[in-house]
């Protein structure tokens, strides 16, 4: 099954779920419609990468069988809703203004409050409702998963892996926030390791590794296959996040939908920054530390920091790490002994995840 057909199947499942939610929402009253519309809005667009990785994992377990498993589309839809929840909370934590070229959810809710002429602080309303919006989306993702697993023979292990994914992302997000402050009291030599831990927990696992494992688990994979798929999914996920880190500093806003150097303004202590700091002399390192996390960085100041980071060789080193993770994934996929259909799907998705500009 092609990626477009997977995307269409997941979109159809999401549409049915949303229609079901709306059919039962009259009791909430008219003000709740704003909230539901905001939730539905977050589900628009995106590459459906997690759903596609889940499908590829299912193919690996099913021996390349093309038989449709309705539960798989529910799983894919649940993963996409969970992704939306993570992005809503991530944008709120980072105080981001945009997502995919549109206002971030808390900004859209702030604008809705203002446009309605409601009393009080519109920005505070946007922040508060965005917290609840992310929580609602997590609940929706659980609802979708549970609906899909009713009567399924592999419900229990799939549910267990999904729960682990939720815990990992939450802890990873907390560590990401913590690192924006804790870097200052930790040995410089430890910062790369700490940044890579954040990358693994916050993004690499739930973006690539765990969707593959969830699809495979749903397809009845044994422990041996799961170990081998994890060995593939982890380096792909790490390369995926390192690419994201590069785009967060050097990405083209017209492509990423985010302002240039957004990670610099948000104070992200990524592997890229950890490596750059190691090679800078004390004065330049102090300058970098002082500027990262300043939300008022001008466009010129962003360019100056980009050039400083490039001059350290950090960008080249991260590209080398991406290549090393990619090579490790290739070897792991070769050793996984999955069928040709699943192997091709996993390889194509890995390439799309790593070699991207948004």
Question: What order do the helices and strands come in, and which of them pair?
Answer:
Blueprint lengths: L2 H21 L7 H12 L6 H13 L8 H25 L3 E2 L2 E2 L1 H12 L5 H28 L5 H28 L8 H28 L4 H28 L2 H4 L5 H5 L4 H9 L2 H10 L7 H13 L2 H23 L3 H15 L4
Antiparallel strand pairs: 1-2
Describe the model.
The chain is an all-alpha fold. The protein has one domain (3-354): Farnesyl Diphosphate Synthase (Orthogonal Bundle), CATH 1.10.600.10. Helices cover 77% and strands 1% of the residues. It is built from 16 helices and two strands. Strands 1-2 form a two-stranded antiparallel sheet. Helix 4 runs antiparallel to helix 6 (122-149) and helix 8 (191-218) crosses helix 9 (223-250). The longest helix has 28 residues, at 122-149. The model has no long low-confidence stretch (mean pLDDT 95).
What's the CATH class label? Mainly Alpha
What general form does the structure show?
globular
Percent of residues in helices: over 70%
Mean pLDDT: 95
Secondary-structure element string: HHHHEEHHHHHHHHHHHH
Percentage of residues in strands = under 5%
Major sheet: arrangement of strands: 1-2
């Amino acid at each position: 099954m092609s990626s477009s057909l997977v995307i269409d199947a997941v979109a159809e499942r999401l549409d049915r779920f949303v229609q079901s939610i709306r059919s039962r929402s009259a009791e909430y009253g008219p003000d709740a419609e704003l909230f539901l519309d905001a939730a539905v809005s977050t589900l628009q667009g995106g590459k459906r990468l997690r759903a596609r990785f889940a499908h590829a994992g299912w193919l690996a377990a099913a021996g390349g069988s093309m038989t449709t498993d309705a539960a798989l589309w529910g799983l894919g839809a649940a993963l996409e809703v969970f992704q939306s929840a993570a992005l809503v909370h991530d944008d709120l934590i980072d105080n981001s203004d945009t997502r995919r070229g549109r206002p971030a959810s808390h900004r859209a809710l702030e604008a809705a409050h203002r446009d309605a002429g409601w009393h009080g602080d519109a920005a505070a309303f946007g922040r508060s409702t965005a917290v609840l919006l992310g929580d609602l989306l997590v609940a929706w993702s659980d609802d979708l998963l549970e609906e899909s697993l009713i009567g399924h023979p592999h419900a229990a292990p799939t549910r267990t892996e999904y729960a682990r994914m939720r815990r990992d992302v939450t802890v990873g997000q907390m560590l990401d926030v913590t690192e924006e402050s804790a870097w200052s009291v930790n040995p410089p030599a430890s910062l790369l390791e700490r940044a890579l831990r954040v990358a693994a927990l916050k993004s690499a696992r739930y973006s690539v590794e765990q969707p593959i494992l969830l699809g495979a688990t749903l397809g009845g994979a044994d422990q041996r296959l799961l170990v081998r798929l994890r060995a593939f999914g982890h380096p792909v996920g790490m390369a995926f996040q390192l690419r994201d880190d590069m785009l967060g500093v050097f990405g083209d806003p017209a492509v990423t939908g985010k302002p240039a150097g957004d990670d610099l303004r948000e104070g992200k202590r990524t592997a890229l920054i950890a490596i750059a700091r190691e090679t800078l002399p004390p004065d330049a390192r102090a300058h970098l530390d002082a500027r990262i996390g300043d939300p008022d960085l001008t466009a010129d100041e962003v360019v100056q920091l980009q050039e400083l980071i490039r001059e350290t060789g950090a960008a080249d080193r991260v590209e080398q790490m991406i290549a090393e993770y990619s090579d490790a994934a290739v070897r792991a996929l070769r050793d996984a002994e999955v069928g040709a259909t699943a192997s091709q799907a996993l390889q194509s998705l890995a390439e799309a995840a790593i070699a991207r500009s948004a």
